[in-house]
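Q: For a teaching handout, I want to show students what a protein-ligand complex looks like in token form. Below are the inputs, and the small molecule is nicotinamide-adenine-dinucleotide. Please produce the holo structure.
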Amino acid sequence: MEADAVRDRTLFWCSASDMADPIRIGMIGCGGNARGHMNALRGLEAARIVAVCDLKEDLANQMAEGVVGEEGDGLRPDVYADPRRLLERDDLDAVWISVPVFCHGELELDVIDRGLPFLVEKPVARTMEIARQVESAVEAKGVMTCVGYQLRYMSGAQAAKAELDGKRVNLAAGQYWSGSGRGYKNAWPLQMDKSGGQLCEQATHTFDMMRYLIGEVATVSCRAASRVLHEIDCPDVTVTTLEFECGALGSMTTTWAFDPADWSEANVLHILYDDKLLQWRTDKATLRACCETKALEAAGCGIDEVFVEAIRTGDRSLVLSDYGDAVRTLAISLAANDSFADEGRVVDVSCY
Ligand SMILES: NC(=O)c1ccc[n+]([C@@H]2O[C@H](COP(=O)([O-])OP(=O)(O)OC[C@H]3O[C@@H](n4cnc5c(N)ncnc54)[C@H](O)[C@@H]3O)[C@@H](O)[C@H]2O)c1
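A: Here is the structure, written as tokens, with nicotinamide-adenine-dinucleotide included.
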């Protein structure tokens, strides 16, 4: 994307829009992550959460109370324990889906069947088969989608994107070092069959940022080990080498056994081009050249606000990662998982 286009787009996001009726949203999945979406949507005049659903009805009720708010100023959404009941409503404009990785598939197909735009959390599925099935249904029905790679919309990523426009990247080194392996206890993210492990559940953000800033990944080779957290069935350290289609090389290291205390230091990407080093973190981007370091500036925006605006205006170009795009990010994680299961075999990502 041209640097100017990035600037224009971010300005557009941040401009106040003429309001008609708010977009009426149903939320499916009311766990920890959904609360962030709820808080963002609550603050938008252009959106209204009219229905919430979780298989655990108490969580849906808690979410409904969150929508009402401590001041009691929000309208209480209707509560459901069955997503199909929620989808029977005829007043929905869009659906937000925030369920565990292994719960994707039927849910999206039901939403697509209703022809509703939807935002779905990353990674989009546990397997490529499910992801491709949903992708085909999205294409057939033509529904607007947005996947929760929200870091793309933030100022650090926008500044890095503008800086790298037209540049020839040589080398990228990403890391996702978090203490989530201890924090999640025995929850689904720590179960390989349910989450796909750290490369799929968490480091998908870093792989996605590599794709967004550098381009498609051609091959991966991954090694993994269990060094500290022997009680879980996922590796707690991984090293992946990547070859990008543009010819750049990359590395990615992950651990689930180290808590960086400052969350913004967990997910980091170093990119070398020309004689410069661009460092991206979730909260900022900096550039080092000739021993000088400068902060890169750009406007950013929240993913919920952007998708509401995209639905309201019908402008799909506002969405920076739609379903089909996110499937290509998923392929990298699953290819890396297959590689470490096969002792580091080089895997062609395009075959996924
Ligand atoms: N974009 C981000 O930065 C970010 C951050 C954290 C989590 N996530 C993603 O968000 C998703 C949810 O994560 P979480 O931490 O909230 O998980 P969670 O386990 O806390 O909550 C998920 C909820 O979904 C409910 N659920 C499952 N299947 C359902 C169905 N068919 N209908 C209705 N409810 C259903 C569960 O009962 C559960 O309460 C995951 O994909 C995760 O990777 C994204």
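A: Two things your students might notice: Residues 26 and 302 are 19 Å apart (CA to CA). The mean pLDDT is 94.
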